[in-house]
């Protein structure tokens, strides 16, 4: 089962009465809310470090979960604390060249949340 620990657009949209489909896209609508979504997500994590992890696994029924978007060490730590005998971390890395060939481009501000585990090695 594929899971994502990052800010849940469904939860953000319901708390802020926004267009859910537009928040899932990569257009200007999402970009206009990006900074607030990041602030909101950080506030939620300060209140409850497992908030987004619990949302990600809430409906998980499969015996194996692949969490492919875990950007913060605090999320990894929460998962390891909650599932100490079942949590295996695998880090997949790609060179800047490979990432560029796949269409990735660093954009200041837009990629601000995508660097949380860059310096972490396990």
From TrEMBL:
Q: What class of enzyme is it?
A: transferase
Keyword annotations of the record: ATP-binding, Cholesterol biosynthesis, Cholesterol metabolism, Cytoplasm, Kinase, Lipid biosynthesis, Lipid metabolism, Nucleotide-binding, Steroid biosynthesis, Steroid metabolism, Sterol biosynthesis, Sterol metabolism, Transferase
What cellular component terms from Gene Ontology apply here?
A: cytosol
From the UniProt record, give the pathway where this protein acts: Isoprenoid biosynthesis; isopentenyl diphosphate biosynthesis via mevalonate pathway; isopentenyl diphosphate from (R)-mevalonate: step 2/3
Which Gene Ontology terms cover its molecular function?
A: ATP binding; phosphomevalonate kinase activity
User: Which Gene Ontology BP annotations are present?
Assistant: cholesterol biosynthetic process; isopentenyl diphosphate biosynthetic process, mevalonate pathway
Query: Mainly localized where?
Result: cytoplasm
Protein localization? Cytoplasm, Cytosol
The EC code for this enzyme is 2.7.4.2
Q: Which InterPro entries match?
A: P-loop_NTPase, Pmev_kin_anim
What is any Pfam family matched here? P-mevalo_kinase
Q: What name does this protein carry?
A: Phosphomevalonate kinase
Q: What is the scientific name of the source organism?
A: Sinocyclocheilus grahami
Identify the taxonomic lineage of the organism of origin.
Answer: Eukaryota, Metazoa, Chordata, Craniata, Vertebrata
């Amino acid at each position: 089962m594929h899971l994502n620990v990052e800010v849940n657009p469904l939860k953000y949209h319901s708390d802020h009465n926004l267009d859910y489909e537009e928040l899932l896209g990569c257009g200007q609508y999402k970009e206009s809310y990006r900074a607030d979504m990041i602030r909101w997500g950080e506030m939620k994590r300060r209140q409850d470090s497992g908030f987004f992890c619990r949302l990600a696994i809430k409906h998980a029924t499969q015996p194996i979960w692949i969490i492919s978007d875990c950007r913060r060490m605090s999320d990894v730590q929460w998962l390891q604390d909650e599932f100490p005998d079942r949590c295996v971390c695998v880090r997949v890395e790609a060179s800047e060249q490979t990432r560029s060939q796949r269409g990735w481009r660093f954009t200041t501000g837009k990629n601000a949340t995508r660097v949380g585990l860059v310096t972490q090695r396990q």
